[in-house]
Amino acid sequence: MYLVINSGSTSLKFKIFDEQLKKLDFGIIEKIGQDHSIIEFKNLKETKDVSSHKQALVIVKNYLDAKKIIVTKMIHRIVHGGDKFQAPVKLNSKTIKEISKYNSLAPLHNPINLKTAEHSLNLWKNINHVGVFDTMFFKTLPEKVYSYPINYDIGKKYGIRKFGFHGFSHYGMLQEVSKKLNKKVNNLNIITCHLGGGASICAIKNGKAIEISMGFSPSSGVMMMTRSGTIDHEIIFYLLGCGLKTQEIKDILNYTSGLFGISKIRDLRDIMILCGYKIPGYVSHLKMNKNLKKNAQLALNMFIYSIQRQISSYITLFDKIDAIVFSGGIGERNKDIRNLILKDLKILKNIPSIVVKCDEEKYMLMLSK
Q1: What are 8-25's pLDDT values in tens digits?
Q2: Structural domain of residue 112, as residue ranges?
Q3: Starting from the edge strand earliest in sequence, which strands make up the sheet with 323-327, in order?
Q4: Catalytic pick from 134, 270, 322, 359?
């Protein structure tokens, strides 16, 4: 049996597949490191404190052992593989150490991905552990796209280039749209939008990624939940001159910017409610006031505009577009967000928009072989 692990900063998802890629079991542990963590497995649902990803893995192992599920291979999602890791790699202490060199480029994800893999090596011994990278799907980017217009020698020396992220989601959207439109993958021209806590927009031409909004790190591109997206780099040097430390600025851009930075609200559903939208089944506990509503509306407007601007810039790369595709927690579930994005893009009037519930773990397994 194949066990696929997809670890986030405060979550751990797993799925079990057989040799024919049939999903047999699945589950998620959320709010790791917080009080009242949520455990939702196929045959288990409970709330308990889960202090670490290591403890979460032990819970998963005990659950699988109780069901007599024997794991023969494990697949681990790793966000950033740098310029060295552009294909699946067998994980061991040596390769994990080499991959950790890229941790600073994906601080929200890579350290957790690798710690989870390390713990897995100890819990599931004597089986193959394979790392697959979000960046793999974007190895088809042309040189003129992945190169940055900085000093060429410096760029080469330090491996500075566009890598791209959310690769499994964009790859999955491509595969699913191929089925929906009954069209071969290598004949598809689509713009894919992964919208969640992180967000990225990808242009796929004849089945290959030719442009992606995220670049050297997952912090660039469109505005996100806590990440700024692309900004004028002189802002960083200006803030350094104002007395802020490098790590302070990095933390601001990754953890307290984006929608949260503008609205001071961590949940998009609360932002939407403040802007007058209804979210079925969700009750907001925010105490609303005029200033909060104003900032929420500004944050939403900025978020929508940054996505519209990115999509618009990609339209010119195609003679013909088959579809605009949405996935990710926001892209799949929030129809109002999709409508707001498409509303003012008149050029997309006759292009179908498709919503895809992407099984990233399945595509992680497919790409691991």
Answers
A1: 877 899 999 999 999 999
A2: 2-140
A3: 208-212, 199-205, 189-195, 323-327, 353-355
A4: 134
Burial class (CB in 10 A: 0-12, 13-18, 19+), 103: middle
Q: What is the spatial distance between Cα 110 and Cα 30, in angstroms, rounded to a whole number?
A: 18
State whether 134 and 280 are in the same domain: no
Angle made by CA atoms 162, 99, 128, in degrees to the nearest 5: 120
Same domain, 118 and 216: no
Helix (H) or strand (E) holding 157: helix 152-157
Same-domain status, 297 and 240: yes
Surface-to-core class of residue 179, CB atoms within 10 Å of its CB (0-12 exposed, 13-18 middle, 19+ buried): exposed
Could you confirm whether 134 is annotated as catalytic?
yes
Task: Determine the 3-state secondary structure of 290 from DSSP.
Answer: helix
Residue type, 230: T
pLDDT tens digit sequence for 273-291:
999 999 888 888 888 889 9
What CATH number did the domain enclosing 22 receive? 3.30.420.40
H-run or E-run covering 193: strand 189-195
Whether residues 133 and 253 fall in one domain? no
**Is the full-model pTM beyond 0.85?**
yes
